[in-house]
Amino acid sequence: xxxxxxxxxxxxxxxxxxxxxxxxxxxxxVRFNHLAFLAAEFDFVExxxxxxxxxxxxLTSGWVSKTAAYQDFIFWIKLHQSFTHxxxxxxPMIEGFxxxxxxLAEAGKLAGLLAQFPYSFKLEPANLxxxxxxxxxxxxxxxxxxxxxxxxLNDEVLAFFNKSGLIWANIDQPxxxxxLPLTALVTGQGTAxxxxxxxxxxxxxxGQGRDARYDYCYTDSELGRLAEVVARLKxxxxxxFVSGNxxxxxxxxxxxxxxxxILLKRQQ
Length: 268
Fold this sequence. Notes:
16% strand, TIM Barrel, 8-stranded parallel β-sheet, 11 helices
């Protein structure tokens, strides 16, 4: 299925045991290439594992090899949680993270970086200063920044994003308390980013774990409205990246393909 012009789709992560059956073959063939399987259908993937541990350059070099047959397939790399959740900028960690990016960058397969901040990270002077510091350490690459608290939806912040070339990550998430609402904003780089987290209100703040939080499959009508958001982003940006993070049991894969189909029909 071709892409709508200027819109690129990709799931958040690829190493999920619950994808066997809904996404991957079950049982898995010997030496099954998960990345090549996804690259045949999608334009990019968000790397989730880098949030939990910094991948070795040998591992990221392997991702290049596994997707060599798909020259246009690229990677968005999520920053390690020490940068976004622990708010530490320690030199060894920064250097290690830069090292893991090199094989992807040299192969032309590094789309950019994603800083995913938690709901508890609210707009206040110290946090804005930290964000500026963090951005300075990774300004060699496009950097998309995701906030989950609505306090960041602020003219001063958006002006800083535009001035610094940072990419505002628009997100769809359950609207609970002071959660950031769905936006259609484009800041630096002429690049738009939209992340779909699902709308699992019941488990979003339940503490039941990642799989429970992202266990959600969008309805046709919800996807239709999200297609309108993508269209608004496309009016402002040369490139729109749409990521599916409602990964449990492959819902992200299913919904991204459905969303692509809706957009293609509307383009005709």
